[in-house]
Amino acid sequence: MKIAIAGAGAMGSRIGLMLHRAGNEVILIDRWAAHIQMIRDHGLRANYNGEDIVEHMQIYSPEEIDAKHESVDLIVALTKSMGLREMFEEIKPIITENTYVLSLMNGLGHAEDLAEFVDRDHIILGVTMWTAAMEGPGKVKLFGTGNIELQNLAPAGATFTKDVVQIFDDAGLNATYSQNVKYSIWRKACVNGTLNGLCTILDTNITGVGTTSTAAEMVQTIINEFALVAAKEGIELDQTEVYEHITATYDPAGIGLHYPSMYQDLIKNQRLTEIDYINGAVAAKGKKYGISTPYCTFLTQLVHAKEEILGAK
Ligand SMILES: NC(=O)C1=CN([C@@H]2O[C@H](COP(=O)(O)OP(=O)(O)OC[C@H]3O[C@@H](n4cnc5c(N)ncnc54)[C@H](OP(=O)(O)O)[C@@H]3O)[C@@H](O)[C@H]2O)C=CC1
Ligand SMILES: CC(C)(CO)C(=O)C(=O)O
């Protein structure tokens, strides 16, 4: 299976590297010029569970993706939420009627964006608890463990999706075929809706948030707002299980020492965040359904205010 990773930042590099190390044909696509140059000159360098490794992989900018490139069987979407449509506009030349697209991105609403580029039965939705961080262009830090849950959006995509699960699992990505990925997307949105904004505003990692005396009430209140809104869309979240899932991430021996992607964006790199696709999306849906979401609204405002203060772009 020929695989393209659309958005080869921290997570795209992780998934691409692990799939390539396992012997798959993988190309990376990204627009960050210095990152492309470093990977071309030195390979993708990674601190991989404490060991320095190099993986030599092909990388292209979206503009270099033209009709001369062969189409691919699978595109893994790992841009930031706000860059998804622009990326897919640019890489249209490698998308054919046989191409499947898998989103592993955080946030809500990506299936609708992807449906503009491929048929619904070629869309696969997924969530991942793997983590990754850029240490600089061409260099990524990968530690801890994780998993991936996948499911096709329409029944016709099931056979291909199960093949993808097998390929990802063989690459050590702990992939499983989900029976209800829409539930998993809301469950993961709760993880990001609590940890990402709180770590960013409180300037700490996951363990840092988890060990505060106010974490329990903040996290439970945010989960409750997500659950009330999700219920209006037919998803009944098990709030106790979701809370336990989130508290399990506080462990420093697991992913507790990770600084969520939103922290990396805003605090480390002064880049705009995905808050509008997470807490902001829940606040907007809450408004539509007549549900009050004060914590999501406030956290969204705080993150936007911080973006302005730091001059994020
Ligand atoms: N990091 C993590 O641990 C996890 C992330 N995710 C999700 O995965 C998706 C991708 O996130 P992630 O990989 O973290 O994002 P990154 O910020 O690492 O990469 C996203 C894009 O940002 C650009 N970029 C990143 N850093 C720089 C920089 N310093 N200077 C210039 N450009 C830069 C690159 O492309 P471009 O120039 O085209 O913008 C890159 O493709 C998101 O939806 C995220 O929420 C999910 C689970 C865990
Ligand atoms: C690892 C995790 C779950 C932390 O919130 C994540 O998805 C991120 O960094 O965005």
TrEMBL record:
MF GO annotations: 2-dehydropantoate 2-reductase activity; NADP binding
Domain annotation Ketopantoate reductase N-terminal: ranges: 3-153
Domain (Ketopantoate reductase C-terminal) ranges: 180-307
Associated pathway: Cofactor biosynthesis; (R)-pantothenate biosynthesis; (R)-pantoate from 3-methyl-2-oxobutanoate: step 2/2
InterPro entries attached to this UniProt entry: 6-PGluconate_DH-like_C_sf, 6PGD_dom2, ApbA, Ketopantoate_reductase, KPA_reductase, KPR_N, NAD(P)-bd_dom_sf
Catalytic class of the enzyme: oxidoreductase
Known catalytic reactions: (R)-pantoate + NADP(+) = 2-dehydropantoate + NADPH + H(+)
Gene3D superfamilies: N-(1-d-carboxylethyl)-l-norvaline Dehydrogenase, domain 2, NAD(P)-binding Rossmann-like Domain
GO biological-process terms attached to the record: pantothenate biosynthetic process
Keyword line: NADP, Oxidoreductase, Pantothenate biosynthesis
Listed EC numbers: 1.1.1.169
Pfam family, one: ApbA_C
GO cellular component labels: cytoplasm
PANTHER family from the UniProt entry: 2-DEHYDROPANTOATE 2-REDUCTASE, 2-DEHYDROPANTOATE 2-REDUCTASE-RELATED
Function: Catalyzes the NADPH-dependent reduction of ketopantoate into pantoic acid.
NCBIfam families assigned: apbA_panE, PRK06522.1-2
Family named by the database record: Belongs to the ketopantoate reductase family.
Name of the protein in its database record: 2-dehydropantoate 2-reductase
Taxonomic path: Bacteria, Bacillati, Bacillota, Bacilli, Lactobacillales
